[in-house]
């Protein structure tokens, strides 16, 4: 069949890698894709947000199945645009993607259906939010309601900082409309773990666990980023935690969405905190995580197309989801200066050393082709996060050693990475 992936980052590269090796895939398109994806798919220069053009392309090229991967188009209804034209699509409709696109919605859902999460209050008035702050103790957790590139959550240690945060979000509109509403949440402590689940709206199948490192610097210091690396599985996601989440989080959430008339088909990403009082949901996303996908997908034993089709068709109960009994670590190679300011356009050397190297992957996040003076084409950096280097190993210690060894194969000016991805695992 002809398949099209909407998106163009490292997550989409990992999806494209798995889709391209499926016997069900005869032809793969990506819109817009990137330099790495172009080795697996025909990339078409259409924005992920341009629903009419995407649908027109899919129809003109008789695409059988579309995978909408990023959050913004899902929240904007790009999956709906395909589905409404009768094109089979993986990814939730807009009315279900709201579980990520509105924190107020997801908090209300969890409260109504008794899904364990932090206590909270929602505000659409800055003065009321400021007054509420005076009644609670620090640290303060402020969350802009809408999508904010993963940067809409502020943890403030004192009252002044929290007041400034409310002003930034609700009055100065640092995150635009995303700050029309604000959630103030109880502060929790504990290990974080992410579990991505396939769902067809009725059946939900959790994948293997993962964890990302959001801060820019070693030792979890510096600014929040889109993710500097990930590892899978999480040693903290024990059988006991899994059982609790299966009983209290995953199925309950999918059933809650169905009961609200918001059938959720696609990937439900559950961000969990393992608190003293048990697992609590930090957030839901309506898609694969980036760079969680880069460690979870290489460990998937199933044909990903078969699983995704089952999500779209409502036959996920027929699928036996299986993962390799190994581990994966992904180290993000970024441009120095990310996430604030950085230069682009540096030639990337060493990509070929990953070809046919079993258990090693380089997933492109921000890259593009450029032409040299002699007319030859080279891959250059084109973003803050440039490449995700993933390696497998028999366990996390080995996977981490392999991943860091593999980062040495790649070279570009201003290359920056964290040196402690997956380090929590040494502390056991
Ligand atoms: P979110 O986008 O909701 O996952 O939040 C981003 C990050 O903020 C999480 O990964 C946590 O590290 C932190 N965070 C979010 N909510 C809380 C909370 N209630 N208590 C403590 N930390 C939190
Ligand atoms: N890595 C976190 C996310 O994709 O939201």
Topology:
Elements: E1 2-7, H1 10-20, E2 27-32, E3 42-43, H2 51-60, E4 65-68, H3 71-76, H4 78-84, E5 88-90, H5 94-101, H6 103-112, E6 120-123, H7 126-133, E7 140-144, E8 153-156, H8 159-171, E9 182-185, E10 191-200, E11 204-212, E12 215-217, E13 221-224, E14 229-232, H9 239-259, E15 265-275, E16 278-285, H10 293-296, H11 304-313, E17 327-335, E18 360-364, E19 367-371, E20 377-381, E21 385-393, H12 396-407, E22 415-416
Parallel strand pairs: 1-2, 1-4, 2-3, 4-5
Antiparallel strand pairs: 6-9, 7-8, 7-9, 10-11, 10-15, 11-14, 12-13, 14-17, 15-16, 17-21, 17-22, 18-21, 19-20
Helix pairs in contact: 5-6, 7-8
Features:
428 residues, alpha+beta, nine-stranded antiparallel β-sheet, 28% helix, binds adenosine monophosphate, binds glycine
Percent of sequence in beta strands: 25-35%
Largest sheet: 9 strands, antiparallel
Extended strand count: 22
Mean pLDDT: 95
Radius of gyration: 21 Å
Please state the overall shape, judged from the principal axes of the Cα atoms. globular
The first-to-last residue Cα distance is: 46 Å
- Return residue spans where pLDDT drops below 50 for at least 5 consecutive residues: none
What structural class do helix, strand and pairing data support?
alpha+beta
- Approximately how much helix is present in the residues? 25-40%
- Bound compounds: adenosine monophosphate, glycine
Number of helices: 12
Give a structural overview.
The strands form five sheets. Strands 10, 11, 14, 15, 16, 17, 18, 21 and 22 form a nine-stranded antiparallel sheet that branches. Strand 10 and strand 11 (204-212) form a beta hairpin. It is globular, with a radius of gyration of 21 Å. The N and C termini lie far apart (46 Å). The protein has helices at residues 10-20, 51-60, 71-76, 78-84, 94-101, 103-112, 126-133, 159-171, 239-259, 293-296, 304-313, 396-407, and strands at 2-7, 27-32, 42-43, 65-68, 88-90, 120-123, 140-144, 153-156, 182-185, 191-200, 204-212, 215-217, 221-224, 229-232, 265-275, 278-285, 327-335, 360-364, 367-371, 377-381, 385-393, 415-416. It has twelve helices and 22 strands. Helix 5 (94-101) packs across helix 6 (103-112). It is of the alpha+beta class and 428 residues long. It is 28% helix and 29% strand. The chain binds adenosine monophosphate and glycine (GLY). Adenosine monophosphate (AMP) binds at residues 118, 141, 143, 153, 155, 185-188, 192, 271, 282-283.
């Amino acid at each position: 069949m002809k398949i099209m992936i909407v998106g163009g980052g490292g997550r989409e590269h990992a999806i494209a890698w798995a889709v391209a090796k499926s016997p069900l895939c005869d032809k793969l398109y990506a819109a817009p894709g990137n330099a790495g994806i172009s080795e697996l798919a025909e990339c078409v220069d259409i924005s992920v947000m341009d629903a009419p053009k995407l649908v027109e392309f899919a129809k003109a090229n008789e695409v059988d199945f579309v995978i909408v991967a990023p959050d913004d188009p899902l929240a904007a209804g790009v999956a709906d645009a395909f589905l409404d034209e009768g094109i089979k699509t993986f990814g939730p409709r807009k009315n279900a993607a709201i579980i990520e696109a509105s924190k107020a919605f997801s908090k209300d859902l969890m409260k109504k259906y008794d899904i364990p999460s932090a206590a909270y209050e929602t505000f659409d008035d800055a003065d009321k939010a400021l007054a509420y702050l005076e009644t609670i103790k620090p640290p303060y957790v402020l969350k802009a309601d809408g999508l904010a590139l993963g940067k809409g959550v502020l943890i403030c240690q004192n009252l002044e900082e929290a007041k400034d945060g409310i002003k930034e979000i609700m009055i100065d509109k640092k995150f635009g409309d995303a700050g029309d509403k604000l959630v103030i949440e109880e502060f929790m402590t504990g290990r974080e773990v992410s579990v991505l689940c396939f769902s067809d709206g009725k059946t939900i199948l959790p994948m293997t666990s993962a964890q990302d490192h959001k801060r820019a610097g070693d030792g979890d210091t510096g600014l929040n980023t889109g993710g500097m690396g990930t590892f899978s599985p999480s040693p903290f996601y024990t059988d006991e935690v899994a059982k609790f989440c299966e009983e209290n989080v995953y199925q309950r959430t999918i059933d809650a969405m169905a009961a609200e008339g918001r059938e959720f088909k696609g990937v439900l990403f559950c961000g969990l905190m393992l608190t003293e009082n048990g697992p609590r949901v930090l957030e839901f996303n309506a898609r694969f995580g980036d760079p969680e996908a880069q460690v979870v997908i290489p460990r998937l034993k199933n044909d990903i197309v078969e699983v995704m089709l089952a999500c779209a068709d409502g036959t996920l109960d027929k699928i036996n989801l299986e993962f390799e009994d190994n581990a994966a670590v992904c180290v993000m190679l970024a441009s120095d200066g990310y996430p604030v300011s950085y230069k682009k356009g540096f030639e990337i050397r060493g990509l070929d050393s990953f070809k046919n190297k079993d258990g090693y992957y380089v997933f492109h996040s921000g890259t593009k082709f450029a032409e040299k003076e002699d007319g030859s084409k080279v891959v250059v950096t084109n973003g803050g996060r440039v490449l995700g280097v993933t390696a497998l190993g028999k366990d996390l210690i080995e996977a981490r050693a392999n991943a860091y060894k593999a980062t040495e194969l790649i070279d570009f000016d201003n290359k920056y990475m964290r040196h402690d991805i997956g380090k929590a695992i040494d502390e056991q």
